[in-house]
Design a protein that fits this description.
Elements lengths: L1 H36 L15 H11 L10 H17 L9 E4 L2 E4 L8 H22 L3 H32 L4 H6 L12 H14 L11 H4 L9 H26 L8 H12 L1 H31 L7 H29 L2 H27 L1
Length: 378
Amino acid sequence: MDSILLIKGIIILVIFALSLGIAAYETYFERVVAAFIQDRVGPDRAGPYGIFQPLADAGKLFFKEDFVPSMADKWLFIIGPGIAMFTALMSSAVIPFGDTLKIGEHLVPIQGMDVNIGVLWVFGVVALGVYGMLIGGWASNNKYSLYGAIRAASQAISYEIALGLCLLAVILVTGSLSLREIANNQHGINWNVFYQPVGFILFFVCALAECNRTPFDLPETEAELVVGYMTEYGSMKMGLYMFAEYVNMFISSTIMATLYFGAYNYPGMDWVREFLIAKMGDVSGHNVATLIGTAVLFLKIFMFIFTFMWIRWTLPRFKYEQLMKLGWQWMVPLAMVNLVVMAVATLTGKTLLVAWLGMGGFLLIYFTGRSMYEKRFN
């Protein structure tokens, strides 16, 4: 039992270390992707190909002067970045990063906490993350910071509704709030994205907004609000806010891979497991098969992270009224329709067929009606 607890503790530490390490090197890959898209030289000074640039950035932030504005609320000013970082990291605690490791006669899941309400945990913790921005913007006693905080709160409310409706549609199909159960129900290539592609697209757009990524980075838009809620921050306090954004991007990518793309499941996984067990034995074969599944999950995560970066350096920023209109007039109604269609599909027992016919029929009727309306009145 002691060895199992030790293994579990190591898994938890590795998960947190991976979250921080990947967040740090996301800043490096962001610069590399931006340089590639803009046809220019990226980081190439700090180490071979600039791979030590994140370490140089961290050193710069640690050794910068740490200050608190004289008119700011000191304790809230300090607490704000901590809340943002804490909530970002706590989201990873319930995510299954792999199947199970066989230790003797025991099976240890590659997961911090295996709770049966993992979806609610993630949704609740992510919702708390906006308090970090609100508190930081309010405590700064700066109008630019306050405007950024207000934008962050209204944006989070607008897109979390559609995000929650998309989650409900996934829960309807799988019948569970456990992320591990949701992952296991997508065995092989029985992925949820094939049942609700529209739900995935809506979820992805909402994830962009929740992470404050371009074109949804209105809370920190430089052209209007300096840096928004981070305007008065410097040193590692600003670093925590920036790190929290990159951790959230990693967590959002992991959640999307888990909810819609089968997590650690992949085509032919049963054959691979049987082959490895036959060649390497029950314990070693099982563990190697689990690690392959974990590697597959990380490939899916990196695909989403690249897409986040690709969008940032390709699309222009929304105007604020466009952001609100998209959230309330498009995302929420479409998410409600997706939920109703998935509910009907689940009740009929022919989930895949009814889901595609229902959502396709709705979109066809909607766009046909809209086209006829515009031709008549324009």
